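Ticket closed. Logging final result for Transforming growth factor, beta receptor associated protein 1.
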Amino acid sequence: MSVKAFELVPAVERELLMGDKARINIECLECCGKHLYVGTNDCFIHHFLLDEVTTSKGRLTYSAQKLLHKYLGLKKPVAELRAASALERLIVLCDGIVFLVDMVTLETVPSAAGGGAKIKGVTAFSPTVQIYMVYEDRVQLVKEVTTPEAQPYMILNYSTGAAQDLFPIQQRGRRPIVKRIGREEFLLAAPGGLGMFANAEGVSQRAPVNWSESVIGAAVCFPYVVALDEGFITVHSMLDQQLKQTLSFRDGHILQDFEGKVVLASTKAVYILVPLPLERQIQDLLASHRVEEALTLTEGAQRNIPKDKFQVTDLHKRILQQAGFIQFGQLQFLEAKEHFRKGQLDVRELISLYPLLLPASSSFTRCHPPLHEFADLNHLAQGDQEKVLRCKKFLITYLGEVRSTEVVNGCREDVDTALLKLYAEQDHDSLLDLLASDNACLLADSIPWLEKYHKYFALGLLYNYNGQDSAALQLWIRVVDGDLQDSTRSDLYEYIVDFLSFCSNVDLVWKYADWALRKDPTIGVQIFTKRPTTKDQSGVLNPDDVITYLGKHSQALLLYLEHLVLERRLQKEKFHTHLAVLYLERVLSLLSQSPADEEQVTRGRERLQALLRESSLYRVQFLLGKIETSQELLLERATLHGKLEEHDKALHILVHQLRDFGSAEAYCLWASSSRDSTYRQRLFHLLLGVYLDRNLPATAQSAGGGGGGELEMAAVDLLNRHGEVFDAVRVLSMLPEGWSLQLLRPFLGRAIRASMHACRTSQVALGLARSENLQLLHDRLKERKNPIFVSEKKGCHLCHNTFSEPDVVCMPGGVPVHTHCVAQRIRDSPTKRQLTNSSNHT
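Final structure:
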């Protein structure tokens, strides 16, 4: 595909060069800065001064001024001209002779030894390479290297004489083309119409260009290779080897490049091939949507052209951005995103394509000149809604990726606000994630957008993020009450309760807790029960204030007191008493209903009984006074009497009024759970006494229809189940004379086994103590004659403190210890403890 890379501009017209002399032809050229030297077939050298002139339209032209011409006197064409500007000399080849000419006067330079500084016989055939040093007044042979007879292209190391063949010359009889294009790199005309690149090692590091087989000249003006044949000038890219431009040029026979300036000549005139600015070429490629070619050209320029000649960094970024917009318009989103990233695009350039996404307060203006041809997304999509939707999804993805990078520095508010609007419009799941995280969404711009799409929960989150908790709560409450429609969260009421439970603004808690409690007291009370108890006093509520506040919400008050007493386990009498009173009132209320709900009554009594048993902080006499006359709550009365250590009254209620022998046994176990075995034994003996008491009135014995026989059976069961607790001797003295041993067989068997076990255990302990004592006596006798050394620097083996007095005890092995340390050790010994804790059966 073509691109306009060069313009052919006349430099020296025919009339200026030769006037009306029709037979004069140009043979060779040399250009040094602004100075142009032309060698002709009539043995003249013409010297011109070239000035660059820029037209009003920005085109570059040349104005030539003829300074001098000089006849060399050899009557042969001037074959070659080469400038040695540092010496102000021209090296001239004419009639097989090389000599020096002054660049200013064009006079032949005489040598110091007399005569011209000349080398004759240059054109004579010889398979050698001669290397000369050129001075101001002479030319001196340095070295001569013999070359092989064959005539292909070769790499020749003139220092060592080593040669490496490359490939044959293009055509016999046609002048070979060898152009130096860089350090140790050359362009050669190869057979088959190829322009080959080769370095000093004979390796080609670039792909060849495919030019004409009749090429007569070539030059390199990066990134292009310019070739001249009999009718055309062709321009190939060195980056992708493609033909980029073709210019018609008749009768051309010279093409050379001088310090980046490409000069051509026909037989009668001189032209300069002026390269168009790379930026213009790139923009032309982009205008044709040839993105890859534009990028290839830009990157090639960035790698190879000096920065002082071509400012590629900013241009490269801009071209990447333009390429990104072109591919964005073609819905090639992956490629577009990559170019935006590499080009460090101001993301607002992309956002500005989407109507109304940028905040009204944004100061952003689009880049000038513009990076794209689109007015907005509607212009790009031309009414195709599917295309619009795909573009919006791409922007969501792109903004989500870049919002946490340096790309959005300075425009975070614009990016986050645009992302919020897109999320709301597209009903995207990430809207809540955006608002729940650190964000810079502008409240004023976001409110109408979120309201438009009924995203009231999200709007509340935004209010909360901006410190407007009251506005957030009012909005959410309207949604829960049905005044506003938003299906984002079906559990919004629970969310509000949770929000209030963690809210540090106590005034807001008091303000909105009443609404939550009226809605559902069992959930609403979580505002207070889930509230964290931290050392930081901000936002901490006084339980007394909460209890007072909940006075009109009885169910919530009960749940809150349960939280304080049963979960937080606050050790305050008023909380425990208050909770017990509420439990009691609840049970009494259920009992007063007709008919009573047995299931609820049972559940209520279980909670009351559990509290009465487990808590020791409530006011027992106060509660006992409330149920003293209640015949339905006898078990609770018994528990309260137990708290007052009135065990006889408690057991009397359980045995004679309730006839609940299982509860009586459980009572004994509960009342003695944190006491020693003696206390438990006393309670069980008390219960046995209640069972066997013959002094009760007949009405008490016959209550419940069981009579004394039922109590005697209960006594037998008690003894048989808990025989190990009782003192067997005492029990036998309490039992009636008429009881048979068969009834008490399990009890007596367990009692005898327990007594035997205790006796034998005591005997074992006693034997161990005697053995230990005997061993100590033996050690004492053994150590009596040996000295014991005690000093202030020596420490006790048991406590590791030093000795301050001579009284010590010697342990086995001759180790001295403090007397008080030994006494403590004896007190703590297992044998001593066993003897102390042994039963009275020992």
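The two ends are 118 Å apart (CA to CA). No further action required.
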